Automatic annotation (TrEMBL):
It comes from Tritonibacter scottomollicae. It is found in: Membrane. It holds the Pfam family PHO4. This is Phosphate transporter. It is a multi-pass membrane protein. Its main location: membrane. Keywords: Membrane, Phosphate transport, Transmembrane, Transmembrane helix, Transport. The lineage of its organism: Bacteria, Pseudomonadati, Pseudomonadota, Alphaproteobacteria, Rhodobacterales.
Amino acid sequence: MSQNDLDPRHLETLDRDLDRLSSLEQATAYVGRSNVGLGIAFVFILIVAAATGLMLGDANNTVIVVIAAAFGAYMALNIGANDVANNMGPAVGANAMSMGFAIVVAAIFESAGALIAGGDVVSTIAKGIISPTTMATSSMFIAAMLSALLASALWVNLATWIGAPVSTTHAVVGGVMGAGIAAAGFAAVNWAQMSAIAASWVISPMLGGLIAAGFLWFIKSRIIYRDDKIAAARVWVPVLVGIMGGAFAAYLSVKGLKKLIKIDLTDAIMIGVAVALLLWLVMIPVVRRQSRGLENRNKSLKVLFAIPLIVSAALLSFAHGANDVANAVGPLAAIVQASTSGDFTQAVSIPFWVMIIGAFGISFGLFLFGPKLIRMVGSQITKLNPMRAYCVALSAAITVIVASGLGLPVSSTHIAIGGVFGVGFFREWDTERRLRRAKAVTPDAPRVGAAERRRRKLVRRSHFMTIIAAWVITVPAAATLSGVLFIAINRMIG
């Protein structure tokens, strides 16, 4: 261990101001005003409802499907406002992307994921939470799905308003569960599946946090704390980019391209290994070229991680669009099938026009209301730079692959936020460790009091508690709201 490693001047600078926010582009700031944004969102919902009515004409239950389409558009807007922040927040917080650029990239790749690789068959409604056969009539089933859709959208809307990133999939699951209980009693719920989902509340963020913290430790020990940081970066950055490329290749093979081609987990991992090796070889000369003339300091390293971080944010958005959008509009697809054919017990295939509602709704929701959560995830939980944001993005891809291999249902939202917390808490631990080392070398240094130590915390405890509380109550809150809505809606259409 060198003297430089113990020198307090080389300790990582503490974050003194977590309130620093990224500036928004003028257009985004304008539409982000509450009245303007709400007005545009309302017009979008009306257009979706009108277009659905014109498309269906005098078909059976046209009014019901039009209402369901409006609810689906409302839900898609909320996904864009809340869920997408988890993919773009770290890159924006690390200043690798501007807010406007992030919104454009997310809108393109979320829509591409939904329209190209989304729309897979939903074999059991909302991941098998309830059995459609427990419903007495098709109208009761339609009422349950309407209630689930509206309740989950309302809950995600509330969570966005209070600044809590929550899982929209869990909100849908809670909504379906609550409507199922109200319609057919507790026996209608698949409690084994619900137990697995509840376990994912803990597994997803912890696994994401541990993986993100592990990679940050590796970057610090192998690059940042080295005497010659640039030489170390030339060795390890190609390896890290290769790992990221391989992880995302496997991630997209497993989760993002199911509709286009069926790939099992073993083949996906082999694809990932091949891509990782190829990228590693390609990046060796690229990193050498990028690193020429860079000063031997931490700030110079950010240049080498910026492009991989942008690419990872785009790929996360594509995979999110391919998966979570289908889950969110699943109830709408079930309503369409039950209303047009009367069959509500078989597998539900999501129509292309339903996916279009999801894709465009996410884009509008992101543009109108997304910056609030993007800022919170990217800069208000803990301070992110490109290296830390890289660790968050990589942990999201790896955690999904590991969870798929173990058969665990996980939330991409929980993984990403867990990764942000993971790098923040690791930095707190690492800073304290290095301060203790410095104190051992210079015992006469002034002691840091308890109040100052609390002020130096690198993770906002208030955001931590708000997010954890929102995660815990998402399913019961959506379920309760959905049950109440079902009673009212079933009386109206029953």
